[in-house]
Amino acid sequence: MINFLNLEYFLVASEELNFTKAAKRLYISQQSLSCHISHLEKEFGIALFNRTAPLTLTYAGQILQKRARQMLNLREETYHEIADIKDFTKGQLVIGLSHTRGRKILPQILPIYQERFPGIDLHLREGNSTELATDLLHGDVDLVIDMLPFKVEDVETVPVCAEEILLVVPDAVLERIYPDRVHQLKELMSQKVDLSLLKDCPFLLINPGNRVRTLADEMFAEAQLNPKIILETENIETALALSLRGMGITFYPKMFMSGQETLEKQAKTLLDASFYHLNSPRAHGILGIGYHKGHYMSQATKEFIQIAKDSTLTSV
Q1: pLDDT-based confidence at residue 269 (cuts at 50, 70, 90)
Q2: Which residues are CB-contacts of 313 (< 8 A; sequence separation ≥ 6)?
């Protein structure tokens, strides 16, 4: 009968391909680790490692590495499922989303969730769309809140609310680049946004890998525009703040504007800026919650999704 501890130790050794490093990672002696590996090899009647320098997996070892991950994941999911059936008083929920989006969304969901389920430990994993998709695929998060569609396989999604990306154009930028055409450009942009009209303007963009940046790059390509990017940042609020100070043009989600005071009003306290609706279906999307359909969905995850759907965010 396969011993799960042997499998766990084998998996670490197969990842490190160095018994000394693997033993240190497991906080056991190298002799103890070798003993566990030997038990597995005796059980299967075949070598799992080529004792070479460096250490390598045999073909049997490669097969076991793949199956060991599956068996250990299945064991963990089984424990989670049984714990949920037993009682819903303890658990963990790991939520993946961008830190900026969390500022808008989580205050409407987490207080309600924590009040109903105080025994559930909440953890946030923040990153860009690409990083979060990878985390979801590898099981590092239980669910991800991001724009649909998710660019990863085997993910089920639940729509939450509509989203729109706006173009932020400070007057100071137009006055600096096109001093004789400011009024004309604003009039043209108010009728139809054409990025080619802004080809000489500086842009402040969020880093590649973020959904807003992907939209911006697609729109630049569509307009056959090679933008003058003077700054890239991981924080969309930084891009906006610098834009409102006249440093450059940027893209910003409309969702983040709702709340205490609209950004239009905030902008007036700094300088004049226009927020334009983009004439592209790419600028309009749906914010959704995604979860891996191949993994067991805990009751904690189900309850979070339901509260998100019932919250004031919901408009789809």
Answers
A1: very low
A2: 105, 108, 109, 160, 161, 287
